[in-house]
Design goal:
Blueprint: H1 5-17, H2 23-38, E1 44-49, H3 55-69, E2 74-78, H4 86-95, H5 111-123, E3 128-134, E4 139-147, E5 152-157, H6 167-170, H7 176-181, H8 186-203, E6 208-214, H9 219-235, H10 243-249, H11 251-263, E7 270-274, E8 280-285
Helix pairs in contact: 1-2, 1-3, 2-3
């Protein structure tokens, strides 16, 4: 990598976040993560973390820096771009459970398509054309991404790498969505079965898992709401969730998010502890 890598990271991180990070912070926390991916012979990485934890920004930064400072190309996928269309979610909500109309939990993604693209990467069958999802319209976008070459593949997403939830915790009601709308546990059983089957097969095909761990689920609301406002500002739209709507929305994610906060440290190859301000406070290597 180039000698002035810390300056390049500082500049690109400022472009992505609008914030200036010190070079000491970058050298202590950001550079080691990038080198962890760039200097290994492994090819496929999961970057996981709760909503708003910074996983998407970190993933974009890693791709930018590796491609700017080496000859390698990075294929960056977000599991969010593989959400099922609105009509497909409507259909499974009619067939299985009404809560599945809401995107988020395992079972609301097109895992078959994701698996196909992972297979193409493994066989180096380029170009690979991947979908994008429009969250404001809550539907698949007409826009696609085209990867003509890739040496490294990163899959980022809130539920990526998660283990199936143990029944004792699965059947414990954490909020009004579970208590009022999933009394028979059908929704929870469905997404947990998906996590145990198709999703597990996808996740275990990756070489390493990097997990961003918030110290508390309570931070997720403010992080997610900040994302909503930021996305609205970038797209110049007034069609975004207010804080109360956001609060209700994250209830769908609460159980699996809390389960991952507790269990992912035992599964991750790299654990990144994130504070209330979304800044990294500690990195732990397990391999």
């Amino acid at each position: 990598m180039k000698k002035n890598i810390d300056f390049i990271i500082q500049k690109e991180l400022n472009n992505l976040t609008g914030k200036k990070f010190s070079k000491s912070y970058i050298c202590k926390y950001i550079l080691p993560i990038i080198q962890y991916i760039d200097k290994t012979n492994d090819k496929k990485f999961i970057i996981s973390g709760s909503q708003g934890s910074g996983k998407s920004t970190l993933s974009k930064l890693i791709k930018i820096i590796i491609e700017k400072t080496s000859s390698k190309k990075v294929m960056l996928l977000s599991i969010d771009d593989y959400y099922l269309s609105k009509i497909d979610r409507y259909n499974i909500s009619q067939q299985i459970h009404p809560l599945l109309i809401t995107r988020g939990v395992p079972g609301t993604h097109d895992i078959k398509k994701l698996k196909e693209h992972l297979g193409q990467f493994k066989k180096k069958q380029f170009p690979i054309i991947t979908p994008t999802f429009n969250k404001l319209k809550d539907d698949i976008s007409k826009k696609t991404k085209v990867f003509n070459k890739a040496d490294i593949l990163i899959l980022e997403g809130w539920c990526c790498g998660a283990n199936p939830i143990e029944n004792k915790f699965l059947y414990k009601n954490l909020n009004k969505v579970e208590r009022q709308l999933d009394k028979d546990f059908k929704w929870r059983n469905y997404y947990n079965s998906k996590l145990r089957s198709e999703y597990h097969k996808i996740f275990k095909s990756f070489d390493r898992i990097i997990y961003l761990q918030p110290s508390s689920f309570h931070f997720v609301l403010n992080w997610r709401y900040a994302q909503e406002k930021d996305n609205a500002k970038k797209t110049k739209t007034k069609n975004f969730m207010n804080k109360n709507t956001t609060k209700n929305f994250i209830l769908y994610y609460e159980k699996l998010t809390k389960w991952m906060i507790k269990n992912m440290p035992d599964k991750a190859d790299m654990l990144i502890k994130v504070d209330k301000a979304q800044k990294i406070k500690k990195i732990i290597y397990y391999d």
